[in-house]
Amino acid sequence: MTGRNRKSMPPDFEPPVPAWAAKWPSNTTRLTSAFFGAQGEPSSAWQEWITSSLFQGDHAPELAETAQFVDAKGVSNTVGIAYWKNEGYKHWWENVQDWWQSKDRLNEGCGYWREVFHVPQENIETLHSTPNSHGIANLAGELEGPVEEHAYPGAARDRIPLSGNDEMRGPDAISRKLTATRGEDRVLVKPNKFMCIIRSGQDWGRCETEERDFYLNEVEPSLRAGMDYLRDNPIESRCLNMRLMQSTDGDGAQLDQTFGLGYALDIYAFEEWAKSHPTHLKIFDQFMGHAERFGENMALRLWHEVSVITGDDAEFEYIACHDQTGLLPYART
Q: On the chain, which terminus has fewer CB atoms closer than 10 Å, C or N?
């Protein structure tokens, strides 16, 4: 496929199952992914802002979703997710930034965080187990495939066009060295170059009872154990943060979808975990067992999107949040 390489593909490799990827139009040069969170009991101001800013108004996101999760400290977080192509975010932020920057945010009984990254299209890849879009791929308009570059170690890296001329290697080890700007209960953190972001999702909403039960009872526990390992072992895994989130509808009701949102020093951290760690090997075995059991009748949909940060165009801000939020544990004091 155009824009991909096969540096890591074994000789004579054939994927065990088909997969599809986003096909980006030529006029898509940059993509923005944005995650906005309220930590603790969300204020009424937050609810109003999400409704008026993410789902309507001038330059509203081309795609908006909501989710929730409980973090490593046991605190509930409510999340708004948004995507734009090209300069859409810039125009939107000009209209809404006054709310975010207001001192009122410091006195509403909850913390706020935003993690926004703008990446060239050549720094991103997506993969889907069916020809149905999820996440940022919805902005592409269509999927292409089946693609051959998947289901082997390094396949995600091969699907990122930038990897054809750049190794995309980040720091060797995690430390408290990320540059941070601190204000009145506000911290801005700059991610390291080549930090890798993954959003990896599961959608069992179309599964019949037998397949649904098999996924929830056999597969999902292994997935959760793997996400917990990455969240709780940053030094060993080189994963800065991992959150397993529950997708919700506009009214806050849970959907039959979850996704992991993770940040690592570079793509190799996720690659090594996927290739050799027992938690991922078990996930892979369970998913393959699921695929074999239900075959062409399988209704479970799996997908992910991976981005690599190469410039300074990212905004990670934390307002009155606890010290284990997002990238805060690694911010230079």
A: C
Could you give the count of Cα atoms lying within 13 Å of 209 in the half-sphere of its Cβ? Answer: 0
**What backbone torsions phi and psi does residue 71 show, to the nearest 5 degrees?**
-85, 180
Q: Count of CB atoms within 10 A of residue 115's CB?
A: 24
Phi and psi (nearest 5°) for 267? -65, -25
Please provide the DSSP assignment of 109-140 as one string: SSEEEEEEEEEEGGGEEEEESSS---GGGGGT
Which residues 6+ apart lie within 8 Å of 189 measured at CB? Answer: 178, 179, 180, 316, 317, 318, 326, 327, 328, 330, 331
CB atoms within 10 A of CB 167: 11
Closest to 279 in 3D by CA, of 330, 245, 242: 242
User: For 114-158, what is each residue's pLDDT tens digit?
Assistant: 999 999 999 999 999 999 999 999 999 899 999 999 989 999 999
Name, in order, each residue with C-beta under 8 angstroms of 101's C-beta and a sequence gap of 6 or more: none
Confirm if 318 and 36 have CB atoms less than 8 A apart.
no
Select from 282, 178, 284 the least CA-distant residue to 240: 178
Our CA dihedral for 166, 243, 106, 313, rounded to 10 degrees, sits at 10
Helical (H) or strand (E) element with 203: strand 196-203
**In terms of Cα–Cα distance, which of 29, 21, 30 is closest to 314?**
30
* Strand order, beta sheet including 196-203: 124-128, 301-308, 196-203, 254-264, 239-248, 63-70, 76-85, 30-39, 111-120, 314-319, 186-189, 180-182
277 is catalytic: no
From the list 118, 128, 280, 304, the catalytic residue is 304
* Contacts of 217-220 spanning 24+ positions with Cβ under 8 A: 218/286, 218/289, 218/290, 219/283, 219/286, 219/287, 219/289, 219/290, 220/258
pLDDT for residue 3: 52
C-alpha to C-alpha distance for 286 and 55, rounded to whole angstroms: 37
